[in-house]
Amino acid sequence: MPSQTLTALLDDACVRFGDTPAIVRDGAPDLTYRALHELSARYANALAARGVRPGDRVMVQVEKSVEAVALYLATVRTGAVFNPLNTAYTAAELDYFMSDAEPALVVVDPKSREAAEGLAARHGIAAVETLGADHGGSLADLASGQAQTFESVARDASDLAALLYTSGTTGRSKGAMITQGNLASNAATLIDLWQFSETDRLLHALPIFHVHGLFVALNVALASGTTLIWFDKFDADRVLDAMPRATALMGVPTFYTRMLASDRLSRDAAQSMRLFISGSAPLLAETHDAFAERTGHRILERYGMTEAGMITSNPYDGDRVAGTVGYALPGVDVRIAGEDGKPVLAGDVGVLEVKGPNVFSGYWRNPEKTADEFRPDGAFISGDLATMADDGRVTIVGRAKDLIISGGYNVYPKEIEVALNDLDGVAESAVIGVPHADFGEAVVAVITPTGAAAPTEADMLAALGGQLARFKLPKRVIAVAELPRNTMGKVQKNVLRETYADVLSRS
Ligand code: MCA
Ligand code: AMP
């Protein structure tokens, strides 16, 4: 169903699975698909009342909640463009996103109202509403007085459904324009491949402002009649408590290493489960093997990115090979290419390029960047280094882009380096990812001071804290007299990565 829209896919599911619980959570009544549809209609009417029209951006920075899901569905139903932001982003980061996305409406947590209104006023954005994790907020109030029916606005597969910011190698975030068709085709493909159905109960402990928790977990579940077992965030004990009532889990590798650290994880605990999926960052083979030994389940690792949704997956039936990300999804073309865009030989390393109905339509108001990252035949250049075996199995071996993935969150060194270089007393900086037992990789900065004495680590971190989301902050800032350089004068990050490889395990 390549030309299907997300709106139609989700509307149909809500009608088809009416009495099935869509979301279950501790301390609250179950929410059926019918009730979720009605709630999203109230929010859609509220959006319309606030002047949101098809094509408008709705910027959302709120805590995870069922109401936030209803707001997402409502945005899609009104034909508007959902623009979720990580709750960790600071006011300085929000300022940039508002100027770039020019949303018609900004929805924030009640505690951030004042700050958001100040920023919105600067950008000429009239509508700011709030939504709290516990039903509170002005948008919830507005929605509660609205009708529980709403005629979803008809959309084409090529219409935008979402704008998701991804940081870039230049230090500035770019908005990835994701269409109705991108999301519908990816969800339909994954439901089929991973065999999701009304009999499933998916443990949902991911944030819902990134592709993994929002488009992979939510869209796959809500379009297949799966019941979501809902957590506001990941907590290994709470997830293990609920596991005997569940059939599936989607998580980042940190979820799996944290569960393995608990002696409660066992074959018995995982008895009702049929599928554990991992993605967003590399899953170590040792984690894969330890999990199989402890539970009898081989984790299914898949690979994707904001710009293309899911791209490859290990098979549902068949070998799930540790350290590999499996095969191109049905209907998706993957090739491993050299710098000239020509495919390399099987087994050779190149950059993974992807083409298909899942690939986004470009960067928001940034045709130059879009042109840079697409081949003339429409293939998107992922920036991930990979190999492909004769049978098509893909292994991610590294990144051509300078990117750190920490606990599933992406951090682009350039953004941190720019902020560090601006600090008094810092001459230059190099930001690297180093191994971290919990997050896989974590951020470390190496700086050279302008004067004899470097500013203290605490002062530098405090200064960065006002500007950057906390997960981006270096876990250590190390002052050195000189950065290692090659003969061309380029900083040798590989040397720094080696030198400081165990700096976080030492602390
Ligand atoms: C939290 N902290 C982190 C991270 N998370 N630092 C580095 N990396 C992280 N990932 C810091 C906080 O800033 C805070 O620092 C301290 O740790 C405690 O924060 P808390 O929120 O309590 O942390 P947590 O609950 O332990 O969170 C760890 C987590 C979480 C559960 C692994 O980061 C998480 O849910 N990650 C999933 C990210 C995700 O969904 N990625 C998908 C992107 P301080 O004490 O200084 O304040 S989509 C994607 O990548 C593509 C499309 C794909 O393929 O899926
Ligand atoms: P994002 O920009 O947040 O969408 O992150 C996408 C990036 O996450 C990809 O370009 C990869 O570098 C990385 N990624 C996602 N899944 C995997 C995986 N299974 N193994 C290795 N890297 C992954």
Would you kindly provide a written description of the structure presented here, covering whatever features stand out?
This protein has 507 residues and is of the alpha/beta class. The chain is built from 16 helices and 24 strands. The strands form 6 sheets. The chain has a 9-stranded mixed sheet. It has a 4-stranded parallel sheet with strand order 4-3-5-6, with helices on both faces. A hairpin with a 2-residue loop joins strand 20 (404-406) and strand 21 (409-411). Helix 1 (6-16) packs across helix 2 (33-49), helix 1 (6-16) packs across helix 8 (211-224) and helix 2 (33-49) crosses helix 3 (66-77). The mean pLDDT is 95. The protein binds methylmalonyl-coenzyme A (MCA) and adenosine monophosphate (AMP).
Please write out the topology.
Layout: H1 6-16, E1 21-25, E2 28-32, H2 33-49, E3 57-61, H3 66-77, E4 81-84, H4 91-101, E5 105-108, H5 113-122, E6 127-130, H6 138-144, E7 160-166, E8 174-179, H7 180-194, E9 201-204, H8 211-224, E10 227-230, H9 236-242, E11 248-251, H10 253-260, E12 275-278, H11 285-295, E13 300-305, E14 309-313, E15 327-328, E16 333-337, E17 350-355, H12 367-373, E18 380-388, E19 394-399, E20 404-406, E21 409-411, H13 413-421, E22 426-436, E23 440-449, H14 457-465, E24 476-479, H15 493-499, H16 503-506
Parallel strand pairs: 1-10, 3-4, 3-5, 5-6, 9-10, 9-11, 11-12, 12-13, 23-24
Antiparallel strand pairs: 1-2, 7-8, 13-14, 14-15, 16-17, 17-18, 18-19, 20-21, 22-23
Helix pairs in contact: 1-2, 1-8, 2-3, 2-6, 4-5, 7-8, 10-11
The structure holds methylmalonyl-coenzyme A and adenosine monophosphate.
The site of methylmalonyl-coenzyme A has 23 residues, from α8 and β13.
